[in-house]
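Revision sheet: structure tokens.
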Amino acid sequence: MESRDKIFLYTDGGASGNPGPGGWGAVLKCGSLRKEMSGGFSRTTNNRMELLAVIEGLRAIRWENAEVEVWSDSTYVVKSVTEGWLENWVNKNWKKVKNVDLWQEFLPLYRKHRVTFHWLKGHAGHPENERCDQLAVEAYKQPGLPEDSGYAQADGGAVPAVGSSVSADGGAGTGAGLFDGQ
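Predicted:
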């Protein structure tokens, strides 16, 4: 079997006002390759953006069955996976679970790879976490952001589902097809 380098995915998300304008940022690293991504919405929540950062990062990985380490400052995201909350939600058919649309989007991406989750303290000087925070804030400050249809529906709105993010690639290197957009 071909040996591949481990992929490191650093993520952050936030919302100003919670709910309010929100954004997510992700940095993917593998060897000397790096890809930065971000996106935002006009009205969403912090937890939705934290989870969406992981989703978009995993979605950008082209390899199948990649070994991925996710580093997040979101206890909501990390503990949902590491403490079995997610599996319980699935077994209980998503009863009384927030952000079901995103968790259902996350599951097949998570199962496509060998993913481990790690929590890190936010705003504590970790360079990649700080960069993800910067990407998220820059994203939600952009004019003309789309509405987060999943949040709008959960909040009682009747907005049809649309694309989940606005992405920007600040990455370096070609990635030899490792990450989408490179």
